[in-house]
Design brief:
Elements: H1 10-38, E1 53-54, H2 56-66, H3 68-87, E2 94-100, E3 111-120, H4 125-191, H5 197-231, E4 241-242, H6 254-264, H7 266-287, E5 293-305, E6 311-322, H8 331-396, H9 402-434
Parallel strand pairs: 1-4
Antiparallel strand pairs: 2-3, 3-5, 5-6
Length: 469
């Protein structure tokens, strides 16, 4: 019997069809693997977003125009200037009417006239008043500079957080799409007997987790954007695409920055101004016992009749007096001023220690996140990608099960997300150290003459955990 009339073996047909189907599935799997690798953040960018883009410089300019704390800083400076001017003004004179024996009695007398009274301030007390409020003016000006730094830093930090949320969302979208493709692939493999029911169920759970992660990433992006729009003073600012890369964060010397914070930060300068103000107030209280000269003089018409029948007529009078400091020598206020001066000196020390305390956490976070970024980028992610590629190849060669491919893919996904989190923590910690730990752009500046709060931070970077999850 020749080959044309030889019966066809059904087993051979099934083997041939199975072989072709395997080839097709392997091609599909390879295509998805290549798509996954291209979708990783920091490697190949996704399609351009339809959202309008905005830069960090535009956000900062918006904040400088709209943030209400700048107007508060200006008002504080104006108030300090007004108090300084008022403290050096001379007391106003007193002008009044004086009358004695107005009806005059049987002598037809009576004295009526006017007087002018003026206090002459001695001891240089007005000049010392101006020195006190001059320090308050310097404090208000330093507070204004500090507030500008707070706002700009807050915008930059919110920008970093929003940029990280944007990159995380893009990553989550790509991973969710790949998880959906994996579900479809697992169904196709199950139909031809190359995947078991648990494999299909596991892929479906992975896809649902990926979808839930997308939802969480979207909500997190909305939260961060609302905080950013509040700082720039435009709460209705629509969500936009941010330009920039987290990888561009420069590296700094953390220990040198800590010393700079302790010696040059606006908070320390304000505390030092407080010492000068307290010393000026003490000098002023010591001059208070020096009495002011009280002058009083005037003219009056005396109606008393003389022996010749004429009235005395116009006459003048003058009084000069001082208040003798016998019982009240301003002892209590001097003691209070001394205590305030000592407290102000200790305040400088306290602020420096507080800055060191707060900086210690940021330095730890910066050091850890820097190490984490290096390890994720240079060691863990390349190894995880290599393992994923190896498991994929083994699966194509029928040497590994599909769940192993899913596990390798999930590990690589988690590392990529953790890498973005580490970049965010690294950037925010670096920015916090460079900006003297001043990151709360919506906190009101301290009132002139009041106690500054150098560590009012509400936006400090969170400490990065050691887990890569």
């Amino acid at each position: 019997m020749n080959n044309l009339t030889k019966p066809v073996d059904p087993t051979e047909l099934r083997v041939e069809a199975m072989s072709r189907l395997r080839s097709v599935l392997r091609f599909v799997l390879c295509f998805f693997c290549a798509l996954f690798l291209l979708a990783l953040p920091g490697r190949a960018q996704t399609a351009a977003s339809e959202q309008k883009t905005i830069t960090l410089e535009e956000l900062q300019q918006m904040a400088l125009q709209n943030n209400p704390t700048f107007a508060q800083s200006v008002a504080n400076i104006q108030a300090a200037e007004g108090r300084k001017k008022q403290s050096g003004l001379y007391p106003n004179p007193t002008v009044g009417y004086q009358g004695e024996q107005i009806r005059g009695g049987s002598f037809h007398g009576g004295e009526q006239g006017f007087f002018v009274q003026q206090d002459i301030v001695l001891g240089g007390k007005l000049g010392l008043n101006r020195k006190i409020f001059d320090q308050e003016l310097k404090q208000a000006e330093t507070e204004a500079d500090e507030q500008k730094l707070r706002v700009v830093t807050n915008v930059r930090m919110s920008y970093i957080q929003a940029l990280a949320a944007q990159q995380t969302l893009e990553l989550r979208h790509n991973l969710s799409k790949l998880a959906d493709d994996a579900v479809e692939t697992s169904h196709q493999l199950a139909n031809v007997g190359q995947a078991d029911a648990p494999d299909v169920l596991e892929s479906e759970v992975e896809a649902q987790q990926a979808q839930l992660a997308v939802t969480m990433a979207e909500q997190n992006q909305q939260r961060i954007w609302k905080a950013l729009s509040a700082v720039v003073g435009n709460p209705r600012l629509p969500l936009m695409q941010l330009e920039g890369k987290l990888e561009d964060t420069p590296r700094v010397n953390a220990e040198e920055l800590v010393e700079k914070i302790v010696t040059e930060s606006p908070a320390v300068r304000i505390a030092e101004i407080g010492v000068k103000r307290a010393e000026a107030a003490l000098a002023r209280e010591k001059r208070e016992p020096i009495p002011d000269l009280q002058l009083r003089g005037g003219m009056q018409q005396n109606g008393e009749l003389l022996t010749d029948g004429r009235s005395v007529g116009l006459q003048g009078f003058a009084d000069v007096g001082v208040r003798i400091p016998i019982f009240n020598r301003n002892q209590g206020n001097i003691a209070t001023a001394k205590a305030n001066a000592e407290r102000a000196k200790r305040e400088v020390e306290r602020v420096k220690l507080v800055m060191r305390e707060r900086a210690a956490t940021i330095v730890q976070n910066y050091t850890f996140s820097q190490s984490a970024v290096d390890r994720y980028k240079n060691e863990m992610i390349p190894r995880a990608r290599k393992a994923y590629e190896m498991y994929t190849k083994k699966y194509q060669d029928m040497a590994a099960a599909y769940p192993q491919v899913l596990i390798a893919q999930r590990t690589l996904m988690q590392l990529e997300v953790s890498y973005v989190n580490a970049l965010e923590s690294f950037a925010t910690s670096s920015l916090s150290l460079q900006s003297y730990l001043l990151t709360d752009g919506l906190e009101a500046p301290a009132q002139p003459g009041g106690i500054d709060q150098p560590v009012r931070e509400v936006n400090l970077p969170m400490q990065l955990t050691a887990s890569p999850q």
